[in-house]
Amino acid sequence: MSSRAPLTVEDWAVGVSGHEPAWAPQLESLFALSNGFLGWRGTLDEKPSSLGGTCRLNGFFERFPLAYAEPAYGYPKFGQALAGAPDGAVIALSIDGERLDLGAGTVHAHEQRLELRDGTLTRETVWESPAGARVRVRSTRLVSLCERGLAAVRFEVEALDGRHDATIVSLLEAADTPQQNEDGLESIAALVPSWSEADDAGGAASHATAHSGLAVAAAVHHDVGGGAEMRARADAAGIRTTITAALTPGRALTVTKLIGYATGADHQTTELVATARAQVETARRLGWAELLSRQRAVLDGFWRTADVEIDGDPRLQQAIRFALFHVFQSVVFADPFPPPAKGLTGSGYQGHTFWDLDSFVVPVLAVLRPEAAASALRWRHRGLPLAQQRARELGFRGAAFPWRTIDGHESSGYWPASTAALHLNADIADAVLRYVWATGDEEFAAREGVELLVQTARLWQSLVRTDDEGVAHLDGVTGPDEYSALGDDNLYTNLMAQQNLLAAAQFARRHREAAARLAITADELARWEATAHAIALPFDERKRVHAQSAGFTGKKRWPFDEMTADAYPLMEHHPYVQLYRHEVAKQADLALALVRRPGVFTAAQRERDFAYYEAITVRDSSLSAATQAVLAAELGHVDLAAEYVREVAQMDLADLHGDTQGGIHLAAAAGLWTALAAGFGGLRLGEGAPAFAPRLPERMHRLRFRARLCGRLLLVDIRPGQASYRVLEGPPLTVTHCGQALSVGQQSVTAPIPRLPRPGPPPTQPRHRPPGLDAPR
């Protein structure tokens, strides 16, 4: 049996019928519910997560020592991992003494559905016990989008064939949750119990981490129908509530379970317990129906401003709404932390935040949920003192942000692909620019924005080496491609650093009070601009393409013709010492430079570079396909772009990389929106008016999307041969359509789409790595 679940294809839901244990790890991630602070994996009610740790709380982490065979100066001493919080999802049912288990007895029907408009996970099962008792179980689960620390479950069980005795054991329990790091080493993030107390309908408990100085409190309450008996017991693990009742056909036993969470410092236990209990009391006062109504109202508001509508491709329609749902629910209450790379849907990457946030998620939030983008950037700004300290430790000026972190400390021990991946700092600067371009938020620009740009610019200035001919070089860096490390003049890094330096100078001149506060001199501004204009852009004159880094195009090409379909991903079958010495790319690197800095290249260079790097990029990373989709569409290879879009759309729904069990790929989810809006919509942001250059693939009959731009909500409606623009909220907005300026108000403005010039031959990909759903994974 395949581990990939056969999902239903629906406009506003993702569901599965039937049950196979092999599907559980993927489904738990797909069906995860979150609000940015609190996340529950999409488990069956009667079971904790198949991988350990059903519940996660943003920013609640454990610290552990990092082990090195040969320690050296500058290596991080401690790692971090999100700690599993007390699990309140488990509701175990026994019928006449036999526990509900879909692996025993007979499953006559079973469905789970993630409802994208309601923000709920529903489940319905008809089960016959080994002894022949038949029951129907229904449940609806939500993680509140209105109350920060609240989760709730409505659980119903009904006898279908006579009288039976039912026993429900409802848990709020902390257990050991092993965290697996990328080196295969286990770090146990077990919680230390500090207090628990039961009452008539549940209780409350608090736990602390052993090393990070954090604590969590959780409270639980149960409302049950008449005729049931309930008792609760507190122990070191948490709260165990037992409910018993006699079942008869036509009369369901209904239990409403409310769970509240709060986190803070480990000396704040009393306050945290009070906060957790207050969450539960708020939910009791509102009632189940009102909780559902408010959940739907929040999502109605989101979909009114962010929905994407597609005609002609039902799978893609479902996928983009699934992706946007996960992006949205990952940020609602995330502040003061950003969403981790997997959101709160799984333990992948130990709950760390990477460059994915700044390069892929924040730019989408900037046009769909600007306040969440600002929150993520302010988190980066609050991390400046640690980043400046890290820069000094490394011998640099300015700020060196951590490659992977939860609280701002560097937690990556593999320095060639972390410390040396300094492009992260320019990615943060780029996110600042994209946010300001999208929103026009000059208050942010004058405060947090300028300081982020200045301190990252100071890093580049301290790193640069100027040769005898006046050319500026960045030596020994790692770009986005993780199959290359420690190269000189990585083109992407150099171009992003160039933009960073120029933008810092521009913002410093625009915001003179901030410049004075940061002690920026005229001489420093001049050095930044001189360095930016002198930056090296490696180019292979013989092959007439840009080099990913100096000397890259002179390497021996990876033997793609010798590869079999099961030889990918390459890093699982070949040592990095071989990958590093060959011409092969794990993910879009130079292609990302072509997308982020298009004005640096001529049209002919972009076409040649794209074709050259298509042939060596194997897409062993989920970050690649969205970027390649945008570039392919822009260069006129619309059908190829459509295949890349199909791939990124099904990244988790079809578990293309076989790792969705660790959580959904949040950057790929955001990347799908980018692939559609920037690829087929041609959306580009900069200092001037928002620009569009629409083009649709043949199988797509219509694309409608919304974007918040400069305080307006704009609707873009693209059909074959024409595009329409309308401002749904706010004053008129000037946009450019295929180079033509349009003044757009609340009346739709329609313009024809010029016929695209015929592109050159479609580029080819490495053997066994064509884009789309047919590529072996």
UniProtKB/TrEMBL annotation:
| Pfam families the record matches | Glyco_hydro_65C (PF03633), Glyco_hydro_65m (PF03632), Glyco_hydro_65N (PF03636)
Q: Which SUPFAM superfamilies match?
A: Galactose mutarotase-like, Six-hairpin glycosidases
Q: Which spans does this entry mark as compositional bias, Pro residues?
A: 754-765
Question: What is a single molecular function from GO for this protein?
Answer: hydrolase activity
- Glycoside hydrolase family 65 central catalytic domain sequence ranges: 321-674
* Region of interest (Disordered), residue spans: 746-777
Q: Which UniProt keywords apply?
A: Glycosidase, Hydrolase
| Glycoside hydrolase family 65 N-terminal domain ranges (all copies) | 22-263
Glycoside hydrolase family 65 C-terminal domain: which residues? Answer: 683-743
Gene3D superfamilies noted in UniProt = 1.50.10.10, Glycoside hydrolase, family 65, N-terminal domain (2.70.98.40), Maltose phosphorylase, domain 3 (2.60.420.10)
- Give the family from UniProt: Belongs to the glycosyl hydrolase 65 family.
Name of the protein in its database record: Glycosyl hydrolase family 65 protein
- Naturally occurring in which organism (per UniProt): Gryllotalpicola kribbensis
